[in-house]
TrEMBL record:
GO terms for biological process: polysaccharide biosynthetic process. The lineage of its organism: Bacteria, Bacillati, Actinomycetota, Actinomycetes, Micrococcales. This is Bifunctional glycosyltransferase family 2/GtrA family protein. The chain crosses the membrane at residues 233-250, 256-281, 301-319, 325-347. It comes from the Bacteria. It comes from Rothia amarae. Pfam families: Glycos_transf_2, GtrA_DPMS_TM. PANTHER family: RFBJ PROTEIN, UNDECAPRENYL-PHOSPHATE 4-DEOXY-4-FORMAMIDO-L-ARABINOSE TRANSFERASE-RELATED. Keywords: Membrane, Transferase, Transmembrane, Transmembrane helix. Belongs to the glycosyltransferase 2 family. One of its GO terms (cellular component) is membrane. It is found in: Membrane. CDD domains: DPM_DPG-synthase_like (cd04179). It is a multi-pass membrane protein.
Amino acid sequence: MIILIPAYRPDESLVELCKKLISRVSSSQSRIEILIVDDGSGEKYSPIFRVAEALSYRVRILTLAENSGKGAALRAGFIWCRENRAGQCVITADADGQHLAADILAVGVATELRAQQGLSAMVLGVRTVDDPLAPEPARAPLRSRWGNAISVAFFRLATGQKVIDTQTGLRGFTPELLPWLDMIPGNRYDYEFTMLLRATRTDMLIEQVAITKVYEPGNPTSHFRPVRDSLKIYAPLLGFLATSLAGFAIDTVALLSFVALGIHVIPAVICARLVSALCNFALNRVILHDGGAAPATRTSLVRYGVLAAGILATNAGLMELLTWAGLPLIVAKVLVEATLVPLSFAAQKRWVFGERETALETLRPDASFATRAPVAASQGELPPARRRRELVG
């Protein structure tokens, strides 16, 4: 097992984490190594990395020439593991001490178990358990709480699956996933989120393991840039909303024009929607494609047509109903669009422009073990980490 820790300008928390991991590993004589990727921190931070490396023969430092982002550091670590430690599970953890050594190893055990079963699996350490030794329950910084809430909602909208902690940096990967991880786009925090999105389109198991919530006051060692990194993560949703607003404007102008010409509301809605449909198709095919497999243009166009027909029928029916009930045309239009836009986004992201990944079929040592399973989680709060997992279908 390789514990991969990307680090950019770390503090003593990195050294303390390594000490705790080494202490636990040494007592069990487990075959575990720690690979720390220095993401171009600079000479000022070299002493911290040297101290960590000197702790044990199990610790290795991989230094990048310049800062490229967490995603790039993770990718560099995955490539090193694939080339130098083939067949080993890889567990990623953060350098700021927000993951307990016991939880890191628990995720590692769960990952190795899946590998022994012949399954391709990504095991997520989700922060749901309060630390019993903490003076008061850990509370995430406001930006982290909002960020995770938005990420969870967006992820469920885009994939239909529920992941409790989409921002977790504690993840385990079975060996055959390493080439696939190298193909995920993104160099910063968007890399981890895109990885999750694309994982739902493969036959890998996504398993969730409850871990302890540990937060520093204000999260001072985090290098997450709230505006820039959030824009990268939510680019597909923001782009879709932008094209939807543009389509809404075109649709509304056309609708009002047709009604002014004396056309009945239902054929007016149909004609207006046809005017904006082709433009939306062309834009969304680019925006909603995350770099993975995509269906052929003809296939997407047929799917888009089917979806558009369904949305159109629903739109026309709701518009007729609301205007019949006495609502002004504009008010009815806004209400109907606000209802249908999220549904349209989810359908286009998952079905119209999404496609099942096939790369894992050729990467898995024995494809006969392939099992497509939903995200593993319990209906309520996850059990403690020592119980590790509960799968639901």
